What we know:
The chain contains 14 helices and ten strands. By secondary structure, it is an alpha/beta fold. It folds into three domains: 2-161, 2-Layer Sandwich (Beta Polymerase, domain 2); 165-306, NAD(P)-binding Rossmann-like Domain (Rossmann fold); 347-416, no CATH class.
Amino acid sequence: MTLIAFGINHRSAPLDVLERVSLSGDILPKALAGFVAGDHVNEAVVLSTCNRVEVFAHVERFHDGYAELRDGLSTITSVDVDDFVQHLFIYDNEQATRHLFAVAAGLDSAVLGEHEILGQLKTAWETSRIEGSCSRLLDPLFEAAIRCGKRVRTETAIGRRTASISHSAVSLVREHLGELDGKNVLLVGAGEVGAGVANALHRSANVEIVVSNRTAERADDVATSLGATTVPFESFETALSDADVVICATGATGQVLSADMARTASAGRDRPMLMLDLAVPRDIEPSVAELDHVGLLVLSDLQAFANRGLEERQKAAAAAQLLVDEDLDNLRTQLSAQEVSPLLGSMFRWADAVRLEEIDRQAGRFADLDAETQAAVEALTKAVVAKILHEPAVRLRGSAGTKRGDRLAESLRDLFDLT
């Protein structure tokens, strides 16, 4: 079997492509079920954030598994393969594992060392386990990757002076609007990202917040935590004209706030309005930025702000990479050691079966032997088998966790047709 990591992220594709293939909300369980429903994919975990849509999967064969996953992504997103295939990256086995660990450590993030990705990775893993698409094959890998991500942030400075998206949002809103006390905030979409930014504004200033979400229960929960009020999602436009800050972070597949809606809301205003589009795909029509008295910030603006202080974190990245390499070696040793014992058991069972078959074949020649002599023959043949297999077993155990050990294990399987 082969481990595959493939997908699209902020490094491999422009935002408009990433938006079209995003997998979030209600579509994610359906995607997971679809990925493992075919003949070639055993387990799959999907990591879908504002910066990446990545699938980690155990497949029977590389090319068949990749094709099944690629076509499954096209089907679930209704995006033709030709529209995104040139932006796909794909890794297998050790390279795939290394990529997962780099993601967990924050080394592959748009904001180097950011903390959010670790929680997102854990959520992706837990969701896949709940949906039944991840168990014994991928569990050890994700457990080790998350442990590595925590270790990197504890033992290196890569996460220091890292501004979160929420912190960046507050700072940028202040840059555009000045004093925030008394400002009105409209939150459209009460998911983790939007609620996090609204909470950061709530903690930093005396603001009035209105929450609107497709699921009323979620809107109520977030509003309660913020001391806010709610407005039905179908009529959030009625609250636009009073808003100084509009945060859009829904999981919609199309834009929910048009330029016409913003034009109507800003008509006759003598004070600025700032809109934050934190959604992937984007929630706000880009031409909103052309309106008078209306500013528009998108996710990349917040990420650029968060990357201030990057030089210090880049220095820490080398130390983080050493920890990643160390944890990868430890994982390789652990998994190889776990694999060695069953393989050796198969080898000894195969050899003993050959021994017993040969004794049975020669049974007529041993018929006149007394019980004591027959027992001696049994003991002798067992000892010969154990002696022959002793050195291969010692060498295989001694090299477990190394590339040489992997080669020896594979050779053993091929030579003796072991499973």
